[in-house]
Amino acid sequence: MVRLPKVRILRTKKREGLIRTRLLGAEAATGDVITFLDSHCEANVNWLPPLLDRIAQNRKTIVCPMIDVIDHDNFGYETQAGDAMRGAFDWEMYYKRIPIPPQLEKSDPSDPFESPVMAGGLFAVDRKWFWELGGYDTGLEIWGGEQYEISFKVWMCGGRMEDIPCSRVGHIYRKYVPYKVPGGVSLARNLKRVAEVWMDEYAEFMYQRRPEYRHLSAGDVSAQKELRNRLNCRSFKWFMTEVAWDLPKHYPPVEPPAAAWGELRNVGSGLCMESKHFSSGSPIRLEKCLKERGEPSWSHGQVFTFGWREDIRVGDPLHTKKVCFDAVSNNSPVTLYDCHGMKGNQLWAYRKVRHLYICDFHKNFIQSVRNKRKRKTSDDGGESPDHDVEVPEVDLFQLQVNTLRRYKRHYKIQTRPGLNKAQLAEVLPKTQYYQFQKLTKIEFSYHNNC
Questions:
Q1: Model pTM?
Q2: Same domain membership, residue 290 and residue 173
Q3: How many independent structural domains does the chain possess?
Q4: DSSP per residue over 421-446, as a string?
Q5: How far, in Å, CA of 35 to CA of 94, rounded?
Q6: Could you report the per-residue pLDDT of 110-140, keeping only the tens digit for each?
Q7: Of 242, 247, 378, 405, which is most buried by a Cβ count within 10 Å?
Q8: pLDDT for residue 415 is more than 60
Q9: What is the DSSP letter of 265?
Q10: Range of 338's domain?
Q11: Which has more pLDDT, 191 or 362?
Q12: Are residue 28 and residue 95 in the same domain, yes or no?
């Protein structure tokens, strides 16, 4: 380190965890701006000036770089899917990313945009403003929940937070936690502490989904509540109404009722769909229906929920797992995959004829549905005479054109109208072009099927 005279290494006398260690570094800092990064990061070219520029314009702005993905295995570097998106959360307090709503879209996609919640620990802040906000809550242990605490606090107490597309920092998303957490320390305690101080009546939505959190001790939060009163901070209802107003569309506090739930039985064979394992990548198989085996109750392995997101999850509506039916094409096997809520391979449609359809059609399938088909239909579950169903003509060329237009509009690509797929590959980053290729396979619908 002798060749880096401006670099100082501070060491704690005992294990303090990420949160309190960051506070130790912030206390030793002397510059006007404090920047926090993880150790497993790589700052990209010219990443810092765009952050400092926004703080110079408004010192009460916390700014976050765009976080790119460094592959854990080979250190490959690429953007996240969707790239610029707003930070959010579901009501189990898992971090989520949601699209920028049209009302907030900028004519220039490189312009900064507001984000309700930061992704984690990558941000820059005016040093004096950081301490006016009380820094991090020192009662948070080791890791977890601190991004919510600082995000809620800055918005509710007179500041703002922005993501800066021109600032890029790569981050290694590790496949495992390389350290042990001391006994008695849990993420749940941190989340409850944040909820008790900042979320007001909205904390109840978290407790409804995580009832085990109700009886956890959050420790002494009196100092944090006193800080909130002293800063004259707004209510969490204000935060949800004025800042995160688009979050309930994707993660409603009160879940809409499921369209259907129960067993999925094949009428022809009489067998039921079953998942023996609830992990991502697990196959779905047809097995003898448990109800007919004389089982006293349905196993969750044969109970599925068709929810308001139009995906199918394992379990009944009150106990769904985090894995969904996923199919790459109409010819591929159905497997379980982590639910993403973004439709695509996990979008399913239910018709009155009691058939489920995956709304992900490959071109060869689109071609085949041009012909009439014989389908057996029944409103009461029994068989009825065959009848023809007219399937409209599908113009494959127009399908690709419409998909291209939609994709360009989604990514705000300013190009000449006649841009074709080959030309698009030249102007798009590789990961986004792969997504476009995928979209050409799934953007198909006719009548009200999908």
A1: 0.69
A2: no
A3: 3
A4: HHHHHHHS-HHHHHHHHHHHHH----
A5: 24
A6: 999 999 999 878 999 999 999 999 988 888 8
A7: 247
A8: no
A9: B
A10: 260-360
A11: 191
A12: yes
- pLDDT at residue 398 in the model: 46
Q: Report phi then psi at 22, rounded to 5.
A: -65, -40
Q: Is residue 442 over pLDDT 90?
A: no
Which of 311, 275, 307, 312 has the alpha carbon at shortest distance from 290?
A: 275
**For position 204, what pLDDT does the model report?**
93
Q: Which 3 state secondary structure label does DSSP give 406?
A: helix
Cβ(335)–Cβ(329) under 8 Å?
Answer: no
Rounded to a whole number of angstroms, the CA Rg of the chain reads 25
Picking from 360, 378, 406, the residue at the C-terminal end of a domain is 360
**Percentage of the chain modeled with pLDDT above 90:** 28
d(CA 115, CA 100): 9
The answer to the question of residue 419 being in a domain is yes
Q: Is residue 365 part of a domain?
A: no
Tell me the DSSP string of 200-222: GGGHHHHHHH-GGGTTS-----H
Distance CA 271, CA 287 (A): 5
Closest by CA position to 159, among listed 96, 234, 221? 234
Final residue of a structural domain among 250, 281, 312: 250
Q: Is the dihedral of CA 79, 411, 151, 62 positive or negative?
A: positive
- The answer to whether residues 285 and 306 belong to one domain is yes
Q: Per the domain annotation, does 166 fall within a domain?
A: yes
Residue 91 belongs to some domain of the structure: yes
Give residue 403's pLDDT.
47
pLDDT > 70: percent of the chain = 73
Name the strand (E) or helix (H) holding 153. helix 146-156
User: Are β-strands 41-43 and 33-36 bridged in parallel, bridged antiparallel, or unpaired?
Assistant: unpaired
Q: Tens digits of per-residue pLDDT, 257-287?
A: 888 888 888 888 888 888 877 777 788 888 8
Q: Give exposure, 115-131, as e/b (b: 16+ Cβ within 10 Å).
A: bbbbbbbbbbbbbebbe
Identify whether residues 108 and 243 lie together within a single domain.
yes
